[in-house]
Amino acid sequence: MKLLKLTINDNSQQHFRSLYPGFTIQFHSYEDVDWDKFNPFCLVGVNGTGKSNVLEALASIFFHLECCSCKFLPDNFDFNPEEGFPDAYFLEYLIQDWNGRYNIENYVHVQITKEAGRVPSLYIKEYGNPASPFRRIDILAPTDENGKRIEAAPGKNYLPDIIAGYSSGENEILSIPFRKSRLINFDKYRNDFENGLEFQYPENSLIYIDEGMSQAVLLSCLLFENRETTLSFLTRELGIEDIVSFRMNINMQILSNHITSEKAPFVTDHISNKINILKGCATCWYQTHEHTPGNPESPPSVLVLDFLVDANTRRAFSKMFGSAFDCFRFFQVLYELNYNFIGEDIKQDIYKSKGVYTHGKMPDANPLQDVFHFLDFMIKKNIKEDSGSKELLLREFSDGEHQLLHAMGICLMLKNRNALLLLDEPETHFNPEWRSKFIQILEGCLKNGGDNNLTKDILLTSHSAYIISDCPSDKVIIFRRDKDNKVHARKAAESGYQTYGTSVNTLTSNIFQETSTIGKYSLDKINKYRKELKEGKKLKDIIEDINRELGDSIEKLLLIYEFSNQEDDAHTI
């Protein structure tokens, strides 16, 4: 998938966050020739200029399109296909034809237009054929005479396979459509079970990578991917040599809406076959006790599965799932069963919510309410300071190490899939070395995994000049507010800025309008020295204070040079 253009057309009373009517962001150009190169888009600018709002808008748009086109929607979700958020927009991208090979000749040009208060319209045409007309594809799922959806709409074939979201900070707004998607996935799981339908992986394409999902991503990669090639960056950058062991806890809860029934089904009954296969993959397992049917006060029994990972474990998982992605999808299903305890009234409230407090509407589960979680995730890690390897719990890793694992794992999981990755400030916990190597590491892990860069687009927001310096100027989009406080996005190339290979000081000055190379507190100290000289303090004493109190910097050298010139001028007079 390759994004081309996004325009927000909401009216002035209903603009999307900081993005006012007419806001346009140009991604790839239709005439680009570097489709197969790894070139993520880097959205930059000072705080509050709307960078993250673009990620939020794309996530919200694709959530609405998914709900328009999917086969299943919960009965308690009063979805209106004519009402989106943003409610009016134009979105344009290229995507692989659903039955074609991964090369640019098999891509189609997609245009989606939504007018306020109307259903979106999706059009496609052949890529590279100017004479080919756009033709309209139905985006609304067909229904029977009772309004029940029969199948997914044809337009769903031209949406991304996966939209993955990740935020290192507290961007709860980005997570809103992803959290709604999790609730939909759970309701579909329950609906399929209650109606005797065969188990299927989630239909919805939105996946949010939080702590739990990140563990699932990492485990899937460590069990399936080649450690010498695909995962070599884990050893090189993080010292991770292998996974040693892990535990899975599955609380055998009663399926919601059946709690008081004497023949109440367990929430995991729909996947009992896969649970039994997991038992066969485990080194050992046990179940704590039998649950008492019909007694809501009876605590759920817990199925505990322990895995001591070796070649046999990997073969067993490979036979069960076939690929790292399918393994992850099953873990995703298990994690989404954790929404079993959320009541229908709360779900309905969340489905209707558009605001910044949506996350607060979703209650936190206590340990007994969770259906699934990993425990004792043990990693063999090379510790340079100790000159040897050590077994560590994954929870003992630093924030920066977790953050790097999030980003790398997401890229590996989605290789060779039509995917859009929305990464909101993925480098906030990195040390300077990792910030300077982040783009290189991303490209390396995708290349080692044999990925085709045609299949995905990566959008990341950042305040790091190191990351900007590894991105071509036509892939760096600068956000600024005008005198009327409206946000505008413009490529660095259009502003005459060369970003690729440019020093971080120059980028910090040009993009963030910060000319100082030292902190404001120490800069105030420099101004204090100027004041002392004016008040008559001896220059020799001031120079001694400067050398004693300040480290090396351009500002320090310029100050000493300035004072020296003043002394020379005084002698001349």
UniProtKB/TrEMBL annotation:
Residues 385-469 form the ATPase AAA-type core domain. Coiled coil: none annotated. Pfam families: AAA_21. GO terms for biological process: DNA synthesis involved in DNA repair; double-strand break repair. GO terms for molecular function: ATP binding; ATP hydrolysis activity. Signal peptide: none annotated. This is Conserved domain protein. It comes from Bacteroides fluxus YIT 12057. The lineage of its organism: Bacteria, Pseudomonadati, Bacteroidota, Bacteroidia, Bacteroidales.
